[in-house]
Design goal:
Elements: E1 2-5, H1 15-21, E2 33-36, E3 45-48, H2 57-60, H3 88-92, E4 99-101, E5 106-108, H4 114-117, H5 124-128, E6 134-137, H6 139-145, E7 149-156, E8 159-169, E9 176-177, H7 180-183, H8 187-195
Parallel strand pairs: 1-8, 7-9
Antiparallel strand pairs: 1-6, 2-3, 4-5, 7-8
């Protein structure tokens, strides 16, 4: 069983956000959120969950060693007795997932509903997604029924990140390159000036 995100199918219903808050380990706090792709020109949203990096940056930068990864690759929220609330993990995550929750003095993030997935159940968000934007199941099923194909390699500048969670992309995409500079207004214009 694997987790897949297909942003092209997200309809912005927020069912996943509400279901996530119902997960027993989240104490009523949703660990998933919807991002607007381009709020100025489209209502298109995409769900954002923890990608469960193979080598999690959030855990590497934690000075209190509060963030642990299970044997099967699930990166957990910070252990409350150890978390010092420094927010290093929040700043270091290339996907922008962890959140520091001041009222409980702890970093929390999507743990793929580990209390459920560890016993063979689907994460709460995937059980309620009506459009299939969030899917938890066998890889063969999603490859058979979707045009897009799953990838789990992302490039952020010089950092290559491999993840446990798969992202559905075009059939020719093998690795998704994400460079913040590409999204900055006038970035191409600045590069042209520097080249001359």
């Amino acid at each position: 069983m694997e987790f897949f995100i297909d942003p092209s199918r997200c309809i912005g219903c927020q069912g996943c956000v509400h279901a996530c808050a119902e997960c027993d380990s989240h104490r009523g706090i949703s660990m998933i959120h919807l991002d607007f792709v381009d709020r100025s020109s489209s209502p298109q949203t995409t769900p954002t969950v923890c990608m469960h990096c193979i080598d999690p940056t959030c855990a590497r930068v934690c000075p209190a060693d509060a963030i642990k990864q299970t044997a099967d690759g699930i990166v957990q929220s910070a252990l409350q007795p150890r978390c010092i609330g420094c927010s290093n993990c929040v700043l270091a995550c290339p996907f922008g997932v962890p959140r520091y929750i001041p009222k409980i003095d702890q970093m929390m993030k999507c743990d793929m509903c580990y209390d459920r997935t560890a016993v063979g159940l689907k994460p709460m968000c995937a059980t309620v997604c009506p459009s299939g934007a969030l899917y938890y199941g066998p890889r063969e099923a999603i490859e058979k029924n979707r045009r897009a194909h799953p990838i789990n390699t992302f490039t952020f500048g010089r950092q290559v990140v491999k993840t446990k969670v798969n992202f559905m992309a075009g059939s020719t995409v093998e690795e998704l390159e994400i460079d913040v500079a590409n999204f900055m207004e006038g970035a191409g214009e600045q590069e042209r000036r520097e080249d001359t």
